[in-house]
TrEMBL record:
Localization of this protein: Membrane; Mitochondrion membrane
Keyword Protein transport: no
Protein name: NADH-ubiquinone oxidoreductase chain 3
Gene assigned in the entry: ND3
GO cellular component, one term: mitochondrial membrane
Annotated organism of origin: Drosophila borborema
Top-level taxon of the source organism: Eukaryota
Lineage of source species: Eukaryota, Metazoa, Ecdysozoa, Arthropoda, Hexapoda
Gene3D superfamilies linked: NADH:ubiquinone/plastoquinone oxidoreductase, chain 3
Length: 117
């Protein structure tokens, strides 16, 4: 019993000493203004934060997410092809793909797929 308590105390003391040494050695003496500021995607963090942001980046991200989810929904349809009714499987697949093609056509008509004007 005494040896278990002694081992636990030694482990706690070693851990405490290692934590103290790590905190002492990791202190930086020079605090650089640029290094302590957050990095914001290549923009100057000291300039005005109210710069206009292009909505195209956001829309391309949304388009990517939509088609990424499309792949995640189409793959199980291929797997259940053997186990389901052919007519129900075919109608579900066609309706799903037509909805996606309709969305792609709408984005194309709105000019969201044209990167440059």
């Amino acid at each position: 019993m005494f040896s278990i308590i002694l081992i636990a105390l030694i482990i706690m003391m070693i851990s405490f000493i290692v934590m103290i040494l790590a905190s002492i050695l990791s202190k930086k003496t020079l605090i650089d203004r640029e290094k302590s500021s957050p990095f914001e995607c290549g923009f100057d963090p000291k300039s005005s934060s109210r710069l206009p942001f292009s909505l195209r980046f956001f829309l391309i991200t949304i388009i990517f997410l939509i088609f990424d989810v499309e792949i995640a929904l189409i793959l199980p349809m291929i797997i259940i092809f053997k186990f389901s009714n052919m007519l129900i499987w075919m109608s579900t697949s066609i309706i799903f793909i037509l909805i996606l093609l309709g969305g792609l056509y709408h984005e194309w008509n709105q000019g969201m797929l044209n990167w440059s004007n």
